[in-house]
Write a structure and sequence with these properties.
By secondary structure, this protein is of the alpha/beta class. The protein is built from 8 helices and 11 strands. The structure holds 1-O-pyrophosphono-5-O-phosphono-alpha-D-ribofuranose.
């Protein structure tokens, strides 16, 4: 029997920025287990009582696990969904993990207009988003795909600009980079495999509604 049998709901969680906050939600709803941790060496963590299995994946791989049904559902940033373009249902905006995908340049290279940067090199872990953005504004750029530490690229002459995700802005500041354009705001999304959504509709819909209620509760608490 494969991991993804009908008795269990398989939930994919991403390593990195969204993990801890996802855990807060899952804890509150009673889905999490004590051994569910980002650092866990166990790759599949089961909550027998709730009939839930968790898998923890690399962020960019998560939509692939959900698209192929290796996970029924998952929590992932909108930025990754836009970049990976996988065929999954996006069921809910969880309204946490607020970040922005931006274009940034070294302070010393700042120009008047976006057009002034034409034909330069852009380092990014979001080549599709970057390509689409520069295409939409009619500027041709050379896109260089990296997998992390994007801010390093302009410092060592690998690229003149970057397209990257910004949360607090600290990494940009510490590396003398300035944002010149926002491309997308992004938050965490609750996604589902298309077949699982039909086959396990009640369970997924229940969890979606529980997550929605919690999102609203957190939102109204934040407004107080
Ligand atoms: C992201 C992004 C920046 C940083 C921005 O990297 O690529 O490096 O976070 O956050 P800040 O605005 O709060 O400083 P991440 O931590 O996901 O790791 P990575 O560089 O390995 O991709």
């Amino acid at each position: 029997m494969t991991l993804n049998d009908m008795n269990y709901l398989t939930i994919a969680l991403p390593k990195g920025k969204l993990f801890e906050k996802s855990l807060v939600y899952l804890n509150k709803l009673g889905y999490a287990t004590p051994d569910l941790s980002e650092k866990s060496r166990k790759l599949v963590i089961t909550n027998e009582e709730k009939k839930v299995k968790f898998i923890i994946t690399k962020t960019t791989d998560l939509p692939t696990y959900v698209e192929y049904g290796a996970a029924d559902i998952g929590i992932i940033g909108k930025d990754v969904l836009l970049e990976e373009q996988k065929d999954v249902y996006e069921l809910l905006d969880l309204k946490f993990g607020f970040c922005r995908v931006v274009v940034a340049v070294p302070q010393a290279l700042k120009q008047e207009k976006l057009n002034d940067y034409a034909h330069l090199r852009v380092a990014t872990k979001y080549p599709k988003i970057a390509e689409n953005f520069f295409h939409s504004v009619g500027i041709q750029m050379e896109i260089i795909k990296l997998n992390g530490s994007i801010e390093l690229a302009p410092m060592v002459g690998l690229a003149e600009m970057i397209v990257d995700i910004v949360e607090t802005g600290q990494t940009l500041r510490e590396n003398n980079l300035i944002e010149i354009q926002e491309i997308y705001p992004t938050t965490a999304r609750f996604i589902a495999n298309r077949a699982s959504f039909k086959m396990k509709f009640e369970r997924i819909e229940t969890l979606k509604n529980e997550l929605k209620a919690l999102t609203e509760e957190f939102e109204s608490e934040a407004k107080k």
